[in-house]
Design brief:
Helices cover 78% and strands 0% of the residues. It has two domains: 45 residues, Homeodomain-like (Arc Repressor Mutant, subunit A, Orthogonal Bundle); 154 residues, Orthogonal Bundle (Tetracycline Repressor, domain 2). By secondary structure, the protein is mainly α. The protein is elongated and about 65 Å long. The chain is built from eight helices and no strands. This is Transcriptional regulator. One of its GO terms (molecular function) is DNA binding. Keywords: DNA-binding.
Length: 226
């Protein structure tokens, strides 16, 4: 028998229902917090029968962890694509911040959840968020090192630098969500300036270390000559 056409197949329907559950949980959590939600509230908001929830998640913690994992993967993919179009260390910074800001503005409910659970959520949620941030930091450290080396402006401790930058961006994001629209551009520009200061300091440390290495090499050569 030929497969009917024109509508979503079973796998697509399952993805749609799963997405509707996640979206419903995020909408409700932005109002009352994730810990205050019940399974029935979420399924009612999603427009599905309560037992259908278990076709997708084992419990509410599993749902929250899935949301965190998906957010981390999506953000890393967006930042990687953004970096591919840049050619200098500074443009990597600005493009990354702008990409993060755009994703945040388009997914405010998701970030309300992430920011709230990062500091006040269950241990499982806090660890999951820190793990995803760790992946972003590692990716960004590699990108910063490559971009800086490509323009002959190496930076010291790229992993530490990436850690500072990512946390700066997340802190700015939390502030953006809690303020009015008129101040959002100011917050973004301030974050970019702060990140430039971090980058400048990392470049100065790298330059200082390079000069020290040169001096030590010259001293060693002088000692050998004597």
């Amino acid at each position: 028998m030929a497969k009917p056409s024109g509508g979503p197949d079973r796998a697509e329907k399952k993805r749609m229902v799963r997405r509707s559950i996640c979206d419903a949980a995020l909408r409700l959590s932005s109002i009352k917090g994730f810990s205050g939600l019940s399974l029935r509230e979420i399924t009612r908001e999603a427009g599905i029968a309560a037992p259908s929830f278990y076709n997708h998640f084992t419990d509410l913690e599993d749902l929250g962890l899935a949301i965190i994992d998906e957010a981390g993967v999506t953000l890393r993919q967006l930042l990687r694509r953004a970096r591919k179009t840049t050619t200098s260390g500074e443009s990597v910074v600005r493009r990354s911040v702008e990409t993060f800001d755009s994703y945040l503005r388009n997914n405010a409910e998701l970030f309300h959840f992430l920011f709230a659970e990062r500091v006040g959520g269950t241990r499982a949620f806090r660890l999951a968020i820190e793990r995803e941030m760790g992946h972003i930091i590692e990716d960004y450290a590699e990108a910063l090192a490559e971009a800086s080396a490509s323009i002959n402006r190496p930076i010291a401790h790229p992993l530490y630098v990436a850690d500072l930058i990512v946390n700066c961006a997340f802190n700015a994001g939390a502030e953006v969500l809690s303020t009015d629209e008129s101040k959002r551009n100011e917050i973004g520009e301030r974050a970019i300036t702060q990140i430039r200061i971090i980058m400048y300091g990392a470049e100065m440390l790298a330059a200082k270390a390079s000069r020290r290495d040169i001096n030590e090499s010259e001293n060693a050569l002088s000692s050998d000559a004597e």
